[in-house]
From TrEMBL:
GO MF, one annotated term: copper ion binding
Record bears the keyword Metal-binding: yes
Cellular component GO terms held in the UniProt record: cytoplasm
Keyword Chaperone carried by entry: yes
Entry-linked PANTHER family: P-TYPE CATION-TRANSPORTING ATPASE
CDD domains cross-referenced by the UniProt entry: HMA
Name under which the protein is recorded: Copper chaperone CopZ
Keywords: Chaperone, Copper, Cytoplasm, Metal-binding
Subcellular localization(s) per the UniProt record: Cytoplasm
HMA domain ranges (all copies): 2-68
Gene3D superfamilies reported for this sequence: 3.30.70.100
Naturally occurring in which organism (per UniProt): Planifilum fimeticola
One GO biological process term: copper ion transport
InterPro entries (alphabetical): CopZ, Cu-bd, Heavy-metal-associated_CS, HMA_Cu_ion-bd, HMA_dom, HMA_dom_sf
């Protein structure tokens, strides 16, 4: 199990938080995803053999947010 924190730009409300968390949690291998709106981050716990950080970034960017 590994953990990564992604810096996500463009989130401003509870809906944004839910959207990003939902997109990440749908990925196979993601065990948890927690967004901190104040810090503009998404902390993800995942199985390294199943999902990559690039796949996580892509899932967030598909929702209209920027991962920096």
């Amino acid at each position: 199990m590994a953990t990564v924190t992604l810096k996500v730009e463009g989130m401003s409300c509870g809906h944004c938080k839910s959207t990003v968390e939902g997109a990440l949690k749908k990925l196979p291998g993601v065990k948890s995803a927690v967004v901190d709106l104040g810090a503009k981050t998404a902390t993800v716990t995942y199985e390294e053999e199943t999902v990559s950080v690039d796949q996580m970034k892509e899932a967030v960017e598909e929702q209209g947010y920027d991962v920096v």
